[in-house]
Amino acid sequence: MIGHGFMGAAHSQGWRVAPRFFDLPARPEMTLLVGRNAGRTEAAAQKWGWEQTETDWRGAIARDDVDVIDIVTPGASHAEIAIAALEAGKHVLCEKPLANSLEEAEAMTAAAEGAVGSAMVGFTYRRVPAAAFARDLVQSGAVGEIRQVRAVYLQDWLVDPEAPLTWRLQKDLAGSGALGDLGAHAVDLAQFITGQKITAVSGTLNTFVHERPLLGHGSGLAGTATAERGTVTVDDLALFNSRFDGGAVGSFEATRMSTGRKNALRIEVAGSRGTISFDLEKMNSLGFYDATAPATRQGFTDIMVTEPEHPYISAWWPAGHMLGYEHGFSHQVKDFVEAISEGRQPEPSFADGLQVQRVLGGVERSASHESIWTGTES
Ligand code: SOE
């Protein structure tokens, strides 16, 4: 695994726990953790259970006893590492968003298409049982013809203008702000649940806080502030409308400055027969309105997605017992290892990641042209 920040912790937990709960066709060994700072990498390796450490990712790719490369670095290094790993015949799991630009995502997808190894992008929220079940419900026809998608991903860890300028606020490292960090999840999940692809977007981006204190110590989400200030080079909010290839129309909002909202990834899909409503903050249930029920019994139901018949659940606790944020990372490892062992293309593929990148790029292009009505015209 290359990188050891927040996602490094989450992925480590997935690699460690998945083979203990799921009956996997191959048993992953946590061979090597790579990070630029030897001391910090060693400490992370000991904490999470990686056998060895290395300071250069090229060293990991050169090793014969490494079959899988898991990339959990900021977006700026995804393309270089993933392409080199695929060229060396490794299987690659790469954190979202796939890359920082369309060109990089295209090159990564081309590398994946010609590779012997498998390549998957880490849109982990597909593996929340309620999200996977939402897709199953749509596929069963319970929602009917899908007409509207309403998706928001709202956090508030950047509301304070003194929150430091971590890498997630720097375009050269992160590619974009809320758009790529959170909007990418909303786009992927909306496409996954509906089974439709977004084909057109129109949107706007906004930055509310243009300067922040430079980071002293800390990581991608938080840290200590220094006296010096630097420029925020990404969006704080992305707002866009979209058309899907199956005829649905959608609205999206992504921001890390929505006061009071902690991790609110919410998606509502309304169709001719029913509506489903997913909320990551209530991840053990799924809202469902069945318009075919008798009029006297209609209303939204909170389906508890905690039963062995629901996706992924049977491997865990007795019926009715809840799962959390971290389980998605175990489900991701399970699906990835199974696909590799069975010689199947794992999903979401790099091509799926590229498609999300096209949507993000479309929003940026649209935002740079801005409004039809400027307020000054009559
Ligand atoms: C921070 O906004 C963050 O950690 C994102 O980077 C992740 O993609 C999301 O899953 C949770 O929030």
UniProtKB/TrEMBL annotation:
* Single GO MF descriptor: nucleotide binding
Give UniProt keywords alphabetically. Answer: NAD, Oxidoreductase
SUPFAM superfamilies assigned to the protein according to its UniProt record, in alphabetical order: Glyceraldehyde-3-phosphate dehydrogenase-like, C-terminal domain, NAD(P)-binding Rossmann-fold domains
Q: Which Gene3D superfamilies match?
A: Dihydrodipicolinate Reductase, domain 2 (3.30.360.10), NAD(P)-binding Rossmann-like Domain (3.40.50.720)
Supply the InterPro entries for this chain.
Gfo/Idh/MocA-like_OxRdtase_N, Gfo/Idh/MocA_oxidrdct_glycsds, GFO_IDH_MocA-like_dom, NAD(P)-bd_dom_sf
Keyword NAD tagged: yes
Which segments constitute the GFO/IDH/MocA-like oxidoreductase domain? 134-276
Q: Where is the Gfo/Idh/MocA-like oxidoreductase N-terminal domain?
A: 1-122
Respond yes or no to whether keyword Signal is given for this record.
no
- Name it: Gfo/Idh/MocA family oxidoreductase
